[in-house]
Task: structure prediction
Amino acid sequence: MVETDVVVRRGDERLRRAIAEVYARSFAADFVAFSRDTDKLADAFEHMLIPDRFFVALVGGEPAGLASLTEGDQTLFAPRWQEIRRHLGLVRGSLCYVVVRRWFMRRSADARPGLAEIGFVATEPAYQGRGVATALLRRLLALPGYQEYVLEDIKDTNAPALAVYSKLGFTVYKRRKVRFARRAGFTELVSMKLVQ
Result:
């Protein structure tokens, strides 16, 4: 497969479940405290996604990856406490709700109109190393209205992602040590920027 075999579409209601499934599988290690069952995680997350802020890579019509794009004070999620608790239980659901609100809905300090924040870039394991992330990012970089792009909080151990971002012209502008990060398997979070 080459990058031209990848079709990138903006998310919509028809792709909501696919986005939730790719998201849950791709970031399962980050949500293991809430559930090890990725189907259960997808059930819990599906309602809260704002689909048109995600882009989905399709290969042969099948979801192969995703990435998000926000600007200014836009968020990716609109979580409902009751819905998350329904799928993950009272304690884990409540904790998950708090984590999503605190970590994934906070506004970036640099957020402003014209600055695109790209996030949650993920490729399904079966499609890794086959140009999916590159196709997604090239589509986002071609969107009109943006001259500056940021990717925030990439784990320093995610060498494949850092290599793809560098290949596309992103450069590191910030490194942040994270308390207890070693326990989670990384040392620091890296942020990258591209100005076109």
